[in-house]
Amino acid sequence: MQIERLPNGGKEHLRLSLRGELDALTAPKLYEEISRLVQEHPGLQKITLHCRDLVYLSSAGAGILLMCMDNFAPKGITLELAEVQPEVYNILDLLGLTKLMSVSHA
User: Fold this and answer.
1) Phi/psi of residue 49, each to 5°?
2) Helix, strand, coil: what percent of the chain each, to 5?
3) In the predicted model, what is the mean pLDDT of residues 88-98?
């Protein structure tokens, strides 16, 4: 999986693009990258993961998204998923994550 920082987020909004597969092998990389960026950006309020190029999401990947949400919410940081492909959205919906975080379709 590739993670790319997108411009125009501002200092309170971090925008990342995800490409490839979010599974047991790649999920820790995503968590480490987001954690690092949260530490580097005090005052961060929102993280948007643009998922247009995310082609696969495993239960481990979904678990990392939930862990990010749970760990960063006490710091006042919300997590949202944007441009989610139908296949990935269906997995998120099946697991109930669409009720816990903002998820928008591609």
Assistant:
1) -100, 115
2) 40, 35, 25
3) 95
Q: For the domain that residue 81 is a member of, what is the CATH number?
A: 3.30.750.24
pTM, whole model, 2 decimals?
A: 0.93
Which residue range(s) make up the domain with 7?
2-105
Residue whose C-alpha is closest to residue 24's, from 53, 61, 68: 61
Q: Is-contact 57 92, C-beta < 8 A?
A: yes
Q: Where are the beta strands (DSSP E) in the chain?
A: 2-6, 13-22, 46-57, 78-84, 102-105
Residues whose CB falls within 8 Å of the CB of residue 65, separated by 6 or more in sequence, listed in order = 22, 49, 79, 81, 97, 101
Q: How many domains is the chain built from?
A: 1
